[in-house]
Every structure is written in C-alpha cells, then in structure tokens.
Amino acid sequence: MKKAAVRIYMGLIFLFLYAPIIVLIIFSFNKTKSRGQWAGFTLDWYVDLFKDRTITEALYYTVTIAILATVISTIVGTLAAIGIHYMRGFGKNLMLNVNNIPVLNPDIVTGVALMTLFISAGIKLGFVTMLIAHVLFCIPYVILAVLPKLRQLNRHIAEAAMDLGATPSYALRKIILPEIRPGIISGALMAFTMSIDDFVISFFTAGNEVSNLSIVVYSMARRGVKPTINALSTLMFLAVVILLFIINKKSGEGEELLL
Amino acid sequence: MKKRVAAVIAIVALLAMALPMSGCGEKVVLNVFNWGEYIDLSLLDLFEERTGISINYKTYETNESMLAKLEAGGSSYDVVFPSDYAVSEMIRKDLLLPLNFDNIPNFKYVDERFKNLGYDPENKYSVPYFWGTIGILYNKEMVDDPVDTWDILWNPKYAGQILMKKDVRDAMGAALKMLGFSMNSKNDEELKKAQQALIDQRSLVAGYYGDEIKDLIANGDAALGLTYSGDYMELYWDEDADFSHIGFAVPREGTNMWFDTMVIPKTCQHKKEAEMFINFMLDPDVSYQNAVTVGYPSPNTEAMKRIMEESPEVFELDAFWPDDEIISKSEVYVDLGEYNSVYNQLWTEVLVD
Fold first, then answer.
1. pLDDT confidence of B4, banded at 50, 70, 90?
2. What would the mean pLDDT of B2-24 be, rounded to a whole number?
3. How far apart are CA B313 and CA B8, in angstroms?
4. Looking at per-residue confidence, does B2 or A157 come out higher?
5. Closest CA in chain B for residue A71
6. How large is the average pLDDT for residues B67-80?
7. Given a cut of 60, is residue B11 above it in pLDDT?
8. Which CATH superfamily groups domain B25-131+258-315?
9. Percent of chain A at pLDDT above 90?
10. Sign (positive or negative) of CA dihedral B315, B320, B322, B324
11. B133-257+323-352 sits in which CATH class?
C-alpha cells in the first residue's frame, strides 16, 4: 500500500517535470502551425528547420559560443578554484563572496552592465563580446562546482607526490586534476547549459552581428512561435539526453576503476 | 599529452570556423533588422544574388526592444522595420535619415492612400511595408449577434467570454472609438469617459492578453476578443487545420490602421545599398511573393492586383481588405508626446482598480 503510494507520487512528479517536454515533442510533428489543434503527422518542420537561414545561423552561433565558453570558463574556473582553495582567511572569504555575486545578480543587471562596459570601451558588439559575456557568467558556476571536490581532496597526496620529486605542475596534472575531475565535468556541463539557455545577457551583448537561438525564438513572439522551434528543441533535448547518458556511463566506469 | 593536443586542435578549429563569419572583408554587408517571421527569407537570397551585397539579417520582437538596441549604440543597422508610432518617435528623437526617393523609384507602386500618413506627414523617412487593422476576432459558433460594432465587446450576453488586448493604445482606442471619439484624443473629458467604459467592461472580460488571444479563440476558450487583423490572416492561410468557424470583423465606426514601415536609421553605414534594398522590397514581383508568404495585405498596388486575380475571395475579408468606408473612418496612431503618460496612467488604473 505504502509502496504504491510512493510510486504514484513519484510518477506524478515525473509527469509534472516531463509533461511540457513531451507535449513539445508531440507538437513538433503536428501539421498545423496553431497550437492546441492536431492536424496530422508530418516531418515538414524538421525539413524546414534546416532550410531556415535565421535558425541555422542562430544554431551555429549558439553551439559555437556554448562550446568555446565552456572550454574557456572550465579552464579559468578550475584554476581559480584551486587558487581559492589554497587561500586562507579574509582573502578567501572575500574571493568566495566576490564569486557569488555574479551568480545572485539578476541577468538583466549583468547584461546591461556588460553592454555599457563594451560600448564605453569602444568595442563593437558582436561574436567576441557575446563570448566574453558567456565566459564571464559561466566561470562562477565552474568554481562553485569544483570547490567541493577540492575540499574532499586529501592535500597530503599532492604533497607526498612533490616530496617524491614531482614538480608542482606535474602534481597538479597527475594528482589534483584527476581527483577533482567529477567536479570539473559537472562544472563544464553547467557552463554549457547556462550558455545555451541564456537570453537576457546575450540579448544585450550580441549586437547586430550574431544572434543565438533564444533571441530568434523570442523575436517570433509577435507572429507566433513556429513548430520548427519545437523540432529544434526536440533535437536539442535528444542531444542532451545522449550526452548525459554517455557521461554517466563514462563516469560510472571511471568510478569503478578508482575503487 | 595526446588529449591535450586534441583539445588545442579542437579550439583552433572552432575559432577558425567562427572567424570567417565575423570578419567579412570588403564586401558590403547590409544589416537588416526586422520583426521575427516577417519576410520570405528566399527573397534575401535573391537580393544577394542580384546585387552581390550580402545581408546580415537579424530579428526583434517589439518596437521597444528594437529602439533600445538602436539607441544603445555599439552596433549599426542599415534598414529597420518600425511600426507607425515608433516611426514618429524615431523622427522626434532624430534617429532617422531622410530617404532619397531618386534611389527608390518603386515607391510609385505604393498605394496613394498610404502615403503622407500621420506618423510621417511629409513621407520623408519611411516606406510602408505591410499594413492592417485592429478588430474583433470571434467564434461563429459562440457569437450569434452580427459582429460589426465595438459595442459587442461591452455586451453582457458574452460576460466572461470577452478577451481584451493588454495594450494601452489598442484598449483605449477601442473604447474611444466605441464612444465616437478619436483614437488619438487629447481631450481629458473624452479620455475619462473611455476609461470609465473600460472599467465598466472589466466584469465582462475573461482576461487581458497579448498574442495569446488568437489561440484562445481558435481553441474555443473564449468567444470574441480584440486583436490584429494579421492574427486572423494566420488562421485563414493555415492549410492544415480548419478555422472556418472563426471570423474577423472591423467595426463600422472605424478602427486603427497600423503600418509597419522600412526606414534607414542614422547608424546606417551604406545608405545607397539600404535604399537599393528598400527599392527591391517594393518591386512588384518581390512584394507579391512576400505578401503571399507573410499573408498580410501589402501597400504595393501591383502586388495586390496579382493577388486579386489569383484569389479574389480574400478581398471579401474584413481582415485583408476592409471597405473604403471603414478605411475613411479609421485612424493611424500618432505619437501622443506628453499625453502618452496620461494614457498609461488611465490604463493602469483600469487594470489595478
């Protein structure tokens, strides 16, 4: 009895979480543009998707920026986290709080501030400014993901390695980085999803040269969002699911090796 | 070691992919900034093919966000598509360049009725792109009275089934027109009466919405509502679903006629090419194809002639081609200047009262 109740409760929660995505996927196969009506099955929207130059261009920029921002912010964020970890006292607290502010700051403040900064510095808004903005708001998340792993790290291992003749950079590469790898991976994943998600900051820093998917989708508001966007979201959802699957499998294997 | 080399190669490859798209050499690139989903995209390819000019096409969702980006600086736009009231605001703020109509010979195809309108009285800065009206979208199965007057939005019979547009000019405009006043009224007494009408209407209204009105009525969630003619045209052109039970009427008291236009902002780097683009969009073939794709009536007389030959039935629709009599009673929104805040104040009071 109790078990059944637990199952039903879990089922409801998962339904609540996934119903919107399921509806979105179903409507990507709907023949008509209007929401709330079913007019038959079609794959047309998937074909249209790759013919629409605004969408393909936006997809290109979204993915390129997300990958570059993830790589850069993961490297910078991991090194910063290691640095912060070995700091002591007031300086450490200061750095942690400074790191938290961008996370808590509303996006709109970050976006407008960055735009003002770029314009006042005479930098033309475009690909580079958007990339800088994305790197900037991703770094704190990487730091926050990596720090807990560093706290779990036994600092004597690295010291022992250095006692045995490892140079500091060798110890970093062979001891510290492998130990905190799960934190780095989750930080990178977080950075990637934050970058793909972002609308507000991108809107203010993209200028006229580039626009990402969220900007394009939002600009459809007046004439109604086309089902091509449902199709695209379906493909992106699938990509994320596959990515997560691979990572889980890989890190599962890694864990076993460690044990 | 191998992994690191691979990572470096990946980054370099990505940068190499990113760079050619951002730096485009000496070729002229025209920055065109339009509403989302508001053009036949293949026409951009055609323009590029014919002229060798490439187009950087970006989209926005409201006049306000377009203006915000334009005024912020940091990037330049060559052609933008503001609506009527935004054109007058841009003229007032000195954001536009006057057009050189010698470079836009196709302007002769623009319907004479749509030149020199209130938002650009001497037609120095703008060329109309599409136009339409606001009116009443309704479900024929749920409304049995004739829909031809604004009064129906105040009919207690439809209590709880009426949707109003959450837009100060549209809502106040409908109330003013219902009372027989101008939609651009600057008379405090008239405005007070319009506000009272909207307050009285509140108990009948199921909700104040933006773009959702079309879907709510199409799905049968409400009987009638105030919305743009373009919303009805979307349903009308939908080949895959049957919306014959949905109708659209423009009240005989007259209504607002809206225009989206093409203008050249002061940030423009290539004025001559921008004018070439505007001229291209006014070409009868191009205009026709664009109007067929977008589904809105075009101000281009030649394009409309062709649509008349092909599908004369759309000219029976209020949403596509309102009667001359209705047009003669209709108005274009003009920039209210300091009266904007009066309208906003009255409208806010309606919503929160």
1. low
2. 52
3. 62
4. A157
5. B11
6. 87
7. no
8. Periplasmic binding protein-like II (3.40.190.10)
9. 59
10. negative
11. alpha beta
Helix (H) or strand (E) holding A73: helix A53-85
What are the residue boundaries of the structural domains of chain A, listed by start?
A: 1-42, 52-258
DSSP assignment, residue A124?
A: P
Q: pLDDT (tens digit, 9 = 90+) per residue, A37-86?
A: 788 899 989 998 888 888 999 999 999 999 999 999 999 999 999 999 99
CA distance B82 to chain A (A): 13
Pick from A182, A164, A162: which is nearest to A253 by CA?
A182
Q: Does residue B334 have a pLDDT over 90? A: no
Instruction: Tell the CATH superfamily of the A52-258 domain.
Output: MetI-like (1.10.3720.10)
How confident is the model at residue B26, as a pLDDT? 64
Is A127 in Cβ contact with B58 (below 8 Å)? no
Q: Is B49 on the interface with A (CB under 8 A)?
A: no
Q: Which residue in the set B57, B76, B219 is minimally distant from A36, CB to CB?
A: B219
Alpha helices by DSSP H, listed for chain B, are: 2-22, 42-51, 63-72, 84-92, 168-178, 188-201, 212-218, 229-237, 271-281, 284-294, 301-310, 324-329, 339-352
Pick from A208, A50, A29: nearest CA to A129: A208
Residue type, A202: S
pLDDT at A37: 76
What is d(CA B53, CA B58) in angstroms, rounded to the nearest whole number?
16
Per-residue pLDDT reduced to its tens digit, B222-272: 999 999 998 899 889 888 788 899 999 999 999 999 999 999 999 999 999
pLDDT at A10 over 80: yes
How many CB atoms within 10 Å of residue B188?
A: 11
Q: How far is CA A2 from CA A5, A6, A13, B300, in A?
A: 5, 6, 17, 71
Q: Which residues pair with B50 in a beta bridge?
A: none
Contacts of B4 (CB under 8 A, 6+ apart): none
Q: Which two tokens stand for residue A119?
A: 């314009």
Residue B139 contacts A where some CB pair is shorter than 8 Å: no
**Is residue B20 classed exposed, middle or buried when 0-12, 13-18 and 19+ CB atoms within 10 A define those classes?**
exposed
Check whether A7 has a pLDDT greater than 70.
Answer: yes
Q: Is A208 on the interface with B (CB under 8 A)?
A: yes
What are the φ and ψ backbone dihedral angles of A96, each rounded to 5 degrees?
Answer: -65, -40
- Residues 6 or more apart from B182 whose CB is under 8 A from it? B176, B190, B331
Nearest by Cα to B163 from B245, B242, B218: B218
Q: Which residues contact A82 (CB under 8 A, 6 or more apart)?
A: A146, A150, A172, A176
Question: Which residue from A42, A53, A119 is facing B74, i.e. has the nearest CB?
Answer: A119
Where do the CATH 3.40.190.10 domains begin and end in chain B?
A: 25-131+258-315, 133-257+323-352
pLDDT at B6: 58
pTM (predicted TM-score): 0.83
* Residue B271 neighbours by CB under 8 Å, 6+ apart: B78, B97, B100, B264
Under 8 Å between Cβ of B77 and B267: yes
